[in-house]
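Ticket #4471: structure output looks truncated?

Reporter: J.K.
Steps to reproduce: submitted the chain below (423 residues) through the standard prediction queue, then opened the result file.
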Amino acid sequence: VERTTPPLLFRMEFYSDQKIMVERETALLKKIDINVAESEKRSGKNTVNMQETYTVYLIEIRWVGGLPVGDSPWRRYSEFELLRTYLLVTYPFVVIPPLPEKRAEFVWHKLSADNLDPDFVERRRLGLENFLIRVASHSVLSKDKIFYQFLTEGWREAVLETGFQDKADSRLKSLSATLRVKNPDKSFTDLKQYSDELNSAISHLLRVRAKVADRMYGVYKVHGNYGRIFSEWSAIEKEMGDGLQSAGHHMDTHSASVDDILEEEEHYADQLKEYLFYTDALRSVCRKHELIQYELEMAVLDLASKKQQREELTTGAVRVFSLKGMSSKLFGQESPEQRESRLAALQQSIQASEDAVLDKNQECRQEFMRMSWEEVKRFKEQKDRELREALISYAIMQISMCKKVGDNMGTATCDPHHVTRTM
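Returned output as attached by the reporter:
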């Protein structure tokens, strides 16, 4: 099925009141719309043959215009994790979009930390949909065949056949590179510091917001207690009965409104959490660069060592203690033919090492740096734009909430039968 779409560069999408700027210039998003339509709780046996309960999510892909694209697969959260790991390994220079939280973080009193809680599952469903939209809107990631198979068909065998798990850098290897690299690039050092500062700022904001949500919930529910007291009081009062009942009604309405307010706030908190998790993607780019830089430095040291061996073999002068030098003193010098043979083999090894240094230098300082800094620039522009919009929308929501509360309380106060007028 082929469909033609207008040459739109951008389209504003709305997902559960969350505003997401989607770049329509990618070939994939010119043709299809991606939705994580619903979630479903299932039970089954895991890899160690134990019964477990888990959630699966239905991915629906439709051609722009409405027709479905093949079957709609159900995916577990762990499959989304596998897909993201594959993307991290295959495209180490890309700031890979993060997944929503696996378990609730920065929870407050009423918010459940259970990962099977319906409200949490629904927020995660929206987060997984956002993740797929982010990947599909990326000019490089959207062209990946494995990603398209993840959306439309059986994909696990295909992704494992890529051998990406063998290419994945171990944490120990990355840590070793971080500790042992001698000449870290200042730009990536600054990027790591930027990531840490962004993580710290968003974490602090989310912690403060959780405390405020707890206090707000408590204050509103206190009004609910007053509402019950006023209602009971009105039953035993003759002259002030109507006023007390009206005041109790307004207290109850005010108390109940906090649930909708805090539910709407959670959507803004989820947007902040997305960028909190983005900071780990930035660190991943930094770690990959450190590993490439470390491999370059090791290649340079190996080349220098081989050149020194060639010089010692040519001149016969040994600058540092070596087992070879000791064996020469004990068993005599090599014959000219043996020396020539060793020089020839060493020259070939030096040539291979020089090629390796050139390749690593090109990979580290040209290809990886160029592509990763394009990614970082794109990420920062996206972050500035989206967080600005989210915080402005949050401020507007707070102003609207305050006006609504003021109007409700004003109506109660101005009611001619209100208890304050009666008294």
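Triage note (M.O.): checked the attachment and the full token line is present. The first helix runs from residue 27 to 31.
Status: closed, working as intended.
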